[in-house]
Amino acid sequence: MEFQLSNQAVGSIMMLLQKAILNTISDSTDVDVVEILKNFKLVSTEEGLVVKNPPVVFMSNIHDMDDIDPDADTVETGQ
After folding, report:
1. Complete DSSP assignment for the chain
2. Which tens digits make up the pLDDT trace of 7-28?
3. 14: how many CB neighbours lie within 10 A of its CB?
4. For residue range 47-63, what is the model confidence (pLDDT) as tens digits?
5. CB-based burial of residue 20 (10 Å sphere; 0-12 exposed, 13-18 middle, 19+ buried)?
6. pTM given for the model
Protein backbone atom coordinates (compact mmCIF):
# COMPACT_ATOMS: atom_id res chain seq x y z
CA MET A 1 0.00 0.00 0.00
CA GLU A 2 1.33 3.43 -0.93
CA PHE A 3 0.68 6.62 1.06
CA GLN A 4 1.23 10.31 0.33
CA LEU A 5 1.53 13.20 2.77
CA SER A 6 -1.25 15.78 2.71
CA ASN A 7 -0.46 19.50 2.66
CA GLN A 8 -1.37 19.53 6.36
CA ALA A 9 1.16 16.79 7.13
CA VAL A 10 3.90 18.57 5.19
CA GLY A 11 3.01 21.76 7.11
CA SER A 12 3.25 19.85 10.39
CA ILE A 13 6.74 18.63 9.51
CA MET A 14 7.79 22.14 8.50
CA MET A 15 6.44 23.56 11.79
CA LEU A 16 8.41 20.93 13.70
CA LEU A 17 11.60 21.88 11.88
CA GLN A 18 10.91 25.57 12.44
CA LYS A 19 10.37 24.92 16.15
CA ALA A 20 13.70 23.07 16.35
CA ILE A 21 15.56 25.84 14.52
CA LEU A 22 14.00 28.63 16.60
CA ASN A 23 14.82 26.80 19.82
CA THR A 24 18.41 26.34 18.68
CA ILE A 25 18.73 30.04 17.83
CA SER A 26 17.18 31.21 21.10
CA ASP A 27 19.16 28.71 23.21
CA SER A 28 15.91 27.25 24.55
CA THR A 29 15.44 23.61 25.40
CA ASP A 30 16.43 21.12 22.73
CA VAL A 31 13.72 19.71 20.49
CA ASP A 32 14.05 16.00 19.68
CA VAL A 33 12.79 16.02 16.10
CA VAL A 34 13.00 12.25 15.70
CA GLU A 35 10.99 11.59 18.87
CA ILE A 36 8.27 14.06 17.85
CA LEU A 37 8.07 12.55 14.34
CA LYS A 38 7.78 9.07 15.84
CA ASN A 39 4.89 10.28 18.02
CA PHE A 40 2.89 11.82 15.15
CA LYS A 41 -0.57 10.24 14.98
CA LEU A 42 -1.34 9.82 11.27
CA VAL A 43 -4.72 9.26 9.66
CA SER A 44 -5.27 8.37 6.03
CA THR A 45 -7.73 10.69 4.26
CA GLU A 46 -8.65 11.42 0.64
CA GLU A 47 -6.10 14.27 0.69
CA GLY A 48 -3.34 11.97 2.01
CA LEU A 49 -1.93 11.35 5.46
CA VAL A 50 -2.98 13.92 8.06
CA VAL A 51 -1.24 14.53 11.41
CA LYS A 52 -3.78 14.44 14.25
CA ASN A 53 -1.33 15.93 16.78
CA PRO A 54 0.70 18.57 14.91
CA PRO A 55 3.35 20.55 16.80
CA VAL A 56 2.56 24.01 18.13
CA VAL A 57 5.04 26.81 17.58
CA PHE A 58 4.66 30.01 19.59
CA MET A 59 6.12 33.09 17.95
CA SER A 60 6.74 36.51 19.49
CA ASN A 61 8.37 39.69 18.28
CA ILE A 62 7.71 38.89 14.64
CA HIS A 63 8.86 41.65 12.32
CA ASP A 64 8.23 42.39 8.69
CA MET A 65 11.06 40.81 6.68
CA ASP A 66 11.26 44.01 4.57
CA ASP A 67 12.50 45.86 7.68
CA ILE A 68 15.49 43.54 8.14
CA ASP A 69 18.86 44.74 6.85
CA PRO A 70 20.92 41.59 6.13
CA ASP A 71 24.14 43.56 6.70
CA ALA A 72 23.10 44.98 10.09
CA ASP A 73 24.16 43.48 13.41
CA THR A 74 20.76 44.29 14.95
CA VAL A 75 17.20 44.58 13.74
CA GLU A 76 15.34 47.89 14.12
CA THR A 77 11.81 47.22 15.33
CA GLY A 78 10.37 50.72 15.01
CA GLN A 79 9.02 50.46 18.55
Report:
1. ----B-HHHHHHHHHHHHHHHHHHHTT-----HHHHHHT--EEEETTEEEESS-------S---GGG--TT-SS-----
2. 999 999 999 998 888 877 776 6
3. 12
4. 999 999 998 877 665 55
5. middle
6. 0.66
